[in-house]
Amino acid sequence: MYLVDTNVFLELLLNRSNVKLAYNFFRKIETERIKAVISSFTLHSIEVLLERKRSLNEVVKFLSVLEQWKNLKVYQTNLAEEKLIAENANRWNLDFDDAVQYYVALKHGAKIVTFDRHFQKVKGKQVAILEPF
Prior knowledge:
alpha/beta; five-stranded parallel beta sheet; 6 helices; globular
C-alpha cells in the first residue's frame, strides 16, 4: 500500500518537471498493479487548486478519473484523529499538512510516495519514504 502525497498529483496536473514519473506511477494505480490511499486533505487541496487555476469542470473530470481507480482509497480523518495529528506534528518535525499524510500512512501501514523532502527529517521515522517509481 502506498500513500500518495499531494505533490505527486500536482506534478502531473500542473505539468511540472516530474510529470513523467508521476504519470507512470499513477498508471500503476489505474491498472491495478499497486494499491494506494490518499487523504481527504489531499483530495480537497487538489480540488481547490483545480477550481482556482482552471474550473469546476476540471474538478469534475479529475474526480471522475479517480472514481475509476479501484485500487485507490480516500481516507477521511475524524476529529479525534485531526487532534492527534496536531498534537504529534511537532514530535514528528512536520507541518500540519505533512503530518496528515504521515498519520494516514501510519494508519494504513503504507509507504509515502512523494517528491517532498520534508518527510526525510521525521524523528523516529516509522514509514518508508519513496519517490514515484
